[in-house]
Amino acid sequence: MTVTLTAEQEKFIAEQLKDDQYRSADDVIAQSLGMLRAQEEFICSNVAGLRAKIATGMQQIRRGEVVDGKEVSHNLRKKLQSR
After folding, report:
1. Domain boundaries, position 16
2. Model confidence over 20-72: pLDDT tens digits?
3. Does 44 fall in a domain?
4. Structural domain tally of the chain?
């Protein structure tokens, strides 16, 4: 199999090799594919629960049970400053 990488992907692989995190480009790609597989398996095994949480969130939005993002950021900053 032949795979064509973008310049950005090649740069990323080179950075991983430079940091001595991997021995070869093959190792970087193998690790990446392993992580992709794990992510896909997680999604497949949790899809029902994830869909239920999304549905709950959508219902809350429709009922107006939401907090503005700016308000959340403001409250978090206040909480951090009080520590």
Report:
1. 7-81
2. 889 999 999 999 999 999 999 999 999 999 999 999 999 999 999 998 899 99
3. yes
4. 1
CB atoms within 10 A of CB 20: 7
Q: Over the stretch 73-82, which tens digit does the pLDDT of each residue have? A: 999 999 999 9
Could you give the CA distance from residue 11 to residue 29 in angstroms, rounded to a whole number?
13
Q: Is 1 part of a structural domain of the chain?
A: no
Q: Rounded distance, CA 75 to CA 38, Å?
A: 35
**Integer CA distances (angstroms), 35 to 41, 48, 52, 65, in order:** 10, 21, 25, 35
Q: Is 2 contained in some domain?
A: no
